[in-house]
Amino acid sequence: MASEQKTFRFDEVSKHNEYDDIWLIVSGKVYDVSNFLLEHPGGAEAMIAATNKDATSDFEEAGHKDETREMMQKFCVGKIDESTLPSRRRHNVSTTNKISSLDPTRELMVKILKFLVPFMVLGLTFTVLQ
After folding, report:
1. How far is CA 11 from the centre of its chain?
2. What does the pLDDT look like over 109-124, one tens digit per residue?
3. Beta bridge partners of 17
4. Could you give the CA distance from residue 122 to residue 130 in angstroms, rounded to a whole number?
5. Who contacts 77 (Cβ-Cβ below 8 Å, separation ≥6)?
6. Cα–Cα distances in Å, from 105 out to 101, 102, 111, 112, 114?
7. What is the pLDDT of residue 103?
8. Which stretches of the chain are DSSP H helices?
9. Which of 12-21, 22-31, 70-79, 101-110 has the lowest mean pLDDT?
10. What is the reported pTM?
11. Among 65, 78, 97, 87, which residue's Cα sits nearest to residue 28?
């Protein structure tokens, strides 16, 4: 891709929302993923559902790896004019960084619960069956 990226308006990008023509907005960039649709491990439906909006949070929540971010570069067709995004869909880079770095105490509690809940369910099941 050339060093000068084309800037797209939201209404231009949102026109690309058909099965054979999919463009996504992720982290301020526009990606033409039409040729990747059938290869996407999460299925074509996941990508189609991410059209007509800033899909950054969808992308982050899916837990994509660094390799995915590198691979995406070949699909990048430009950047989005963020002033054209509908306000409820606007992506704020600083907000994304805050979301990805959860409170360490909260992370610890989640890990503990993921470990203990199956044992509690097993114990309850054993108790009820007695």
Report:
1. 20
2. 878 888 888 888 888 8
3. 22
4. 12
5. 1, 6, 8, 23, 30, 31, 32
6. 11, 8, 10, 11, 14
7. 64
8. 10-14, 44-49, 56-61, 66-72, 93-100, 104-129
9. 101-110
10. 0.62
11. 78
Q: Tell me whether residue 32 is exposed, middle or buried, using C-beta atoms within 10 angstroms of its C-beta: 0 to 12, 13 to 18, 19 or more.
A: middle
The pair of structure tokens assigned to 79 is: 């950047």
Q: How far apart are CA 34 and CA 56, in angstroms?
A: 18
Burial 89-103 (b: 16+ CB within 10 A, else e): ebbeeeeeeeeeeee
Two structure tokens written together for 123: 């114990």
Joined together, the tokens standing for residue 66 give 């660094």
Tokens standing for residue 58: 């969808």
For residue range 30-82, list pLDDT tens digits in order.
999 988 888 888 888 888 888 889 988 888 888 888 888 888 899 999 999 98
